Amino acid sequence: MTSRIRLADVEVGTQLPAQVFHVDRAGLVRYAGASGDFNVIHWNERFATSVGLPNVIAHGMLTMALAGRVLTDWLGDPGAVVEFGTKFTRPVVVPDDADGATVEVTGKVTAVNDDGTAQVSLTVLCDGVTVLGNPRAVVRLV
Amino acid sequence: MAVNPEYVGRTYPPGPAYLVGREKIREFAMAIGDLNPACHDVAAAHALGYPDLVAPPTFPVVMAMKAATAAVKDPGLGLDYTRVVHGEQRFAYSRPVVAGDELVVTVTIEAVRTMAGNDMVTTRGDVTTVAGEHVVSATTLLISRGVEDDS
Fold first, then answer.
1. Of B56, B88, B92, which has the smallest distance from its Cβ to A72's Cβ?
2. Confidence at B20, pLDDT banded by 50, 70, 90
3. Are the C-beta atoms of B7 and B76 separated by less than 8 Å?
4. Does B47 lie at the interface with A, CB-CB under 8 angstroms?
5. Chain B 69-108, CB below 8 Å of chain A: which residues?
6. Do A78 and B65 count as a contact with CB atoms less than 8 A apart?
7. Is the dihedral of CA B13, A37, B96, B40 positive or negative?
8. Domain segments of chain B: what residues?
9. Fewer CB within 10 Å of terminal CB in chain B, N or C?
C-alpha cells in the first residue's frame, strides 16, 4: 500500500497541485445516481427555489469528493487518506446553463507527523467564496 | 421542536450488508471525475497492494448516509427530517473500501443539541465488514433548520 508522494518530499507549507472543477446539471444527475442521493434540491429548480434557495445546488458530498480528488490525485493512491473531514458552509449554486458552477480547490501541508502521515488543509472556493469550512485530511506518505 | 437529548448514546444495529461492486466503484469514481487507475483497473489496484478496485475516500457515504438517515428518522428523537441539511462530514479510515467488501453500518447518536432554533444531531456510522473488521467511521452532522430562520 504505497503512495506516490514520499515523506521526504513533503514539508510544512508544501502546496498540492491546485485544480478547477466544472459542475453542471448533468454532473449533478450523474452524482445523484452514483451516490443514491436523490434529494430534489439537487436537480429540480422549481423545488429548490420554493424552499428559498437561489437555484439548484450541488450535493455537499460532491463538493467534498472534488476536494478529495486534489488529495488523491496528488497522492496517486486513493487509499492513502487516513482522515478526511469538512463543514458545509455555503451551497454551490448550479445554474442551468453551459457553464454551471466552477469549484477551485487548493491545498497545503500543515503538519508532518512522526508516524509517516501528514496533515493537509484545503481551500474550496466557488465564485471566490469559501464553500467548505475547514476541509482537512490526514494522509499516509511512503 | 427540540430534539431529545436522551437519545445520545443510542445505537442502531446494522441493516442488510452492502456488497461493494467493481462497477459501483467505477460509476462513483466517474461521477466525481476520478480517473485514478486503482479505481478502475484491477491490475492497477493490485500494483498498489490492494486486493481489488479501491473506492474514492468519500464513497462510504453511499452506505453511511442511508444508515444515518434511517437512525435520525426514529420518531422519538424528534428531528424534523423535512428541514434537514448536511452540516458536516468526517471519515476516519482503518483502510479504504475495496470491491468485494461486504459492509454493515452501526449508527450511534453521538450528540444532540438545539442552537438558535436549529436542531443538530451528530451520528457516527461505524462501517465494518460482516466479519467485524473496522473499515471506516463516518461522522455526520445533520441540521434541521428552525422555521423561524426563514424570515
1. B56
2. very high
3. yes
4. no
5. 85-93, 95-96, 98
6. no
7. positive
8. 5-21+59-150
9. C
**B5-21+59-150 classified as CATH 3.10.129.10:** yes
CB-count exposure of residue B43 (10 Å: 0-12, 13-18, 19+): exposed
Parent domain of A96:
7-23+59-140
- Note the pLDDT tens digit of each residue in B98-146: 999 999 999 999 999 999 999 999 999 999 999 999 999 999 999 998 8
Residue A99 lies in a domain: yes
Q: A136 is written with which cell numbers?
A: 482537512
Phi and psi dihedrals of A48, rounded to 5? -60, -45
CATH code of the domain in which A73 resides: 3.10.129.10
Domains identified in chain A, total number: 1
Asked if B90's CB is within 8 angstroms of A86's CB, the reply is: yes
Is some CB atom of chain B closer than 8 A to the CB atom of A1?
A: yes
Per residue in B49-100, pLDDT tens?
999 999 999 999 999 999 999 999 999 999 998 889 999 999 999 999 999 9
Classified as helix, coil or strand, A3 is: coil
Q: Would A42 be classed as within a structural domain?
A: no
A64 inside domain: yes
User: Which of A83, A90, A122, A136 to mutate against chain B (most B CBs within 10 Å)?
Assistant: A83
